[in-house]
Amino acid sequence: MQKVEDRWELKLTKPLASISLWVFVFFFSLTLGVAASICTSNWEWFGRTGSMATISGLLLIMRPFMRKGSVQQARSGVLAQIAVDADGNQGEFIDPQEIKDGTAALVGAIFTIAGTIVWGFGDLV
């Protein structure tokens, strides 16, 4: 049986699970669109960069799938675990990666909405 870490699709998708990469793409594409629009006095360029912003948002939403390699692996994760500390106190601990996945999904949804608005109405600025 093949280990999860050795799967070819995980090697391709894991680098795309970077939150900072897609935040950079979002702001860089919009900045580039504004700069191109100002230089050419044509605001259609700004509207076109909304498509890249939308793509960055959608890929942020897909972070759990890219990080774990497949839909099946993403669903099999445990959100929280019950643990007992040295004093016998019981508590629920959430995996930090699961928290990042939730944050990425929220930011991705916001980026998708903002990118779609820019994509649709950016040339009217």
The dominant shape is elongated
Tally of separate domains: 1
- Count of distinct strands: 2
Structural class: mainly alpha
Give your account of this protein's structure.
It is a single chain. This protein has 125 residues and is mostly helical. It has one domain (4-124). 66% of the residues lie in helices and 8% in strands. The protein has helices spanning 8-13, 19-40, 44-61, 63-68, 71-75, 96-121, and strands at residues 80-84, 90-94. A hairpin with a 5-residue loop joins strand 1 and strand 2 (90-94). The chain is elongated, with a radius of gyration of 19 Å. The model has no long low-confidence stretch (mean pLDDT 79).
In terms of topology, how is this protein built?
Layout: H1 8-13, H2 19-40, H3 44-61, H4 63-68, H5 71-75, E1 80-84, E2 90-94, H6 96-121
Antiparallel strand pairs: 1-2
